[in-house]
């Protein structure tokens, strides 16, 4: 099965999409990667979904990526004697460490790390920013605040602190347990929440120890400020617009999204645009026009993937949501303006042999009648470099292992094919031609571009390019190079 688009679709699994029939339908509708949200569901439920995905993978013969999204620290207020209280703009409200039930004047905030970081003038956002407090006075055990925007505050509502870098690790004890569990289970990507600085990513990387690639979720202002350094130590990026839109003025999010997507693409690292992409489809069989435009904008920007959250996890129309996103992607990528935008935004360093090879592969493919670029990539680096070029022809990523193929399933334009270990470049050309023919990218009279590294099985050694015919005589040739 080959997709008729380049951008990938990530679908979150949940109560509405936990059985084999639905997960298979989601894949058939266009899902390339499945997200397991570690904020919801037991380890047993996660394992069940993981097993079904791998069963669907075996049925379809296509590598499927699995992304485990770690919860991260959750900052919440305590409980109220009446369950909830109404706060009015201008009144004083106190947050403290006292575990007594709250009232209209105060409530517990059981996070001493927050008080240690607060300063007068800092803002606290409660219940996704619906309530806004500004700190007047504070010490290590309390903060006296003025209510800027009032509303109803109730038990255990979430708290965001946008102004300061909190002395909290990105991984809670639950996250550490979840990380070990899903790595042993066999996921391909780990999405790391609450990233504020590069060392947060290093901690997760050390714990994963190569068992999964690390994707940093950019959802805090501190992460935006430190983005260049965070990008260097991450394998991928998720633009998590939910919390980002809470902690920053909403009008700041679109330019930040565009900037982060371009930087990740320049670095040849996959970037997902996530959150509320088709949220109305939780309850409606069709999205709003604005949501369609939002998805289209991310595709025009060159994002590697767009993601569905509650739409596919808990909505009434999970398969329809994926099918609609798939249809939008196909339509956008067929627009001549899309190609103009993608070509105009092409960038990135060209200072290695591999950079030169993949750039030449794209230029040859686009100036002659080439049907596909076939790249052999052990670690995935070459495949990511080819994808960064955003060529006009399909990319077939040839790799000899399931783990690499599954990770690459997230990346723009890559059609992943698992091949055996290679010893000679002739074998690579033969396998590439067979894959192009078998999956409908070319016919026997057509030509493909093949890139590889010689000697084989050495990561990062791409140093050869060949224009090869897909003729039958080549496929069954036993001659040497």
Map the helices and strands.
Blueprint: E1 8-13, H1 20-29, E2 33-37, H2 43-60, E3 65-69, E4 84-87, E5 92-96, E6 106-108, H3 112-117, E7 123-126, E8 131-138, E9 142-149, E10 151-154, E11 159-160, H4 173-185, E12 189-192, H5 198-208, E13 213-218, H6 221-225, H7 227-233, E14 236-240, H8 241-247, H9 253-266, E15 271-274, H10 289-301, E16 305-308, H11 310-313, H12 318-333, H13 336-344, H14 353-367, E17 370-376, H15 381-388, E18 395-399, H16 402-408, E19 414-418, H17 425-438, E20 447-453, E21 462-469, H18 472-475
Relevant terms:
481 residues; alpha/beta; TIM Barrel; M1 Pyruvate Kinase, Domain 3; Pyruvate Kinase, Chain: A, domain 1; six-stranded mixed sheet; disordered C terminus
Note down, in words, how this protein is organized:
By secondary structure, the protein is an alpha/beta fold. It folds into three domains: 230 residues, TIM Barrel, CATH 3.20.20; 77 residues, PK beta-barrel domain-like (M1 Pyruvate Kinase, Domain 3, Beta Barrel); 123 residues, 3-Layer(aba) Sandwich (Pyruvate Kinase, Chain: A, domain 1), CATH 3.40.1380.20. Strands 1-2-3-12-13-14-15-16 form an eight-stranded parallel beta barrel, surrounded by nine helices. α1 runs parallel beside α12, α5 runs parallel beside α7 and α10 crosses α12. The longest helix has 18 residues. The chain is elongated and about 80 Å long. The two termini are 31 Å apart. The C terminus is likely disordered.
